[in-house]
Amino acid sequence: MAEHKGSVGGIFLSKKRLVVLGSVNLDIVAHAPHLPRPGETVSGAALSRYPGGKGANQALAAKRLGADVSLCARTGQDADADAALALLKADGVDLSQCLALPNAQTGVALIIVDEKGENQITVASGANHSFQADPLHLPPHDALLCQLEVPIEVIRQASTKASGLFCLNAAPVKPVPPDILSRTDLLIVNESEAEALEENLRDYHGILAITLGARGAILQRDGAILARAAPPSVEAIDTVGAGDAFCAALVIAFLEGKGYQEAVEFACRVGAFATTRKGAQPAMPYRADLDSLFNLQ
């Protein structure tokens, strides 16, 4: 386990400075009657463009939940970058380490969402794939949150530079090198990712969060259940970004000193709220949104 200035599960970390290292995309979303089968053309869709990318989504979610957030990422020098960063700028996320690469395009995600809120996603990674590990500067932080939409060497370098809680959302799923896993304090995966990483997880001794979709999430360590929670009942419109909202909320909950049960319940509420609006980043809730919908204090 990495050394840090506190740990999850009830030990209070006095500051809430979060660095998110990851991807920035522009999401091009078609809301369609149903998801196409192989070879099928589905007509009658409505097209929208939203800021996206797992890194950017999680950064915005954390900022709206009250953290001091910096995003370390890469974009192209194009109009898509302006659109992809618009909400982050509007909400005051620190973008000093979000750099534009001259010979790359900003990442683009092509997304289809059906009437039940389920989705299919294809990503053209662009500048996210061109992210170089050296040099890598991380602003001062109490937690570092990464995903796997940037090259693994960047994640490796970031894990060695983490000065606080090191958190990894292992999505999209790929093998996690043992040296990175050994430094990971909090690992967040969904059910299919947990299954794909089963052999990796046998040697993982940190806090493992497994999201279960509409059934909620569990926290465990070394196979022992620490906490389990179900999300509140909501009318899901669009599930894109719900997992990112959960990740950000869980990290923020631990930074605020919440215990396992309270933390996973809070993260499930935030993830559920994110399904009630269209788009990934536009759906990320502020604290006041949660208070009004779920009567939270």
Which characteristics define this entry?
297 residues; alpha/beta; nine-stranded mixed β-sheet; four-stranded mixed β-sheet; 13 strands; disordered N terminus
Helices, strands, pairings?
Elements: E1 17-21, E2 25-31, E3 46-52, H1 54-64, E4 68-76, H2 79-91, E5 94-101, E6 107-113, E7 119-124, E8 143-146, H3 152-161, E9 165-169, H4 178-183, E10 186-190, H5 191-196, H6 198-201, E11 207-211, E12 217-221, E13 224-229, H7 242-255, H8 260-274, H9 287-294
Parallel strand pairs: 1-4, 1-8, 2-6, 4-5, 8-9, 9-10, 10-11
Antiparallel strand pairs: 2-3, 6-7, 11-12, 12-13
Helix pairs in contact: 1-2, 1-7, 7-8
Number of domains as seen in the coordinates: 1
Distance between the termini: 33 Å
Q: Major beta sheet, specifics?
A: 9 strands, mixed
What is the structural class?
alpha/beta
The dominant shape is globular
Cofactor: Mg(2+)
EC number: 2.7.1.15
Binding site for ATP: 190, 211-216, 243-244
GO molecular function: ATP binding; metal ion binding; ribokinase activity
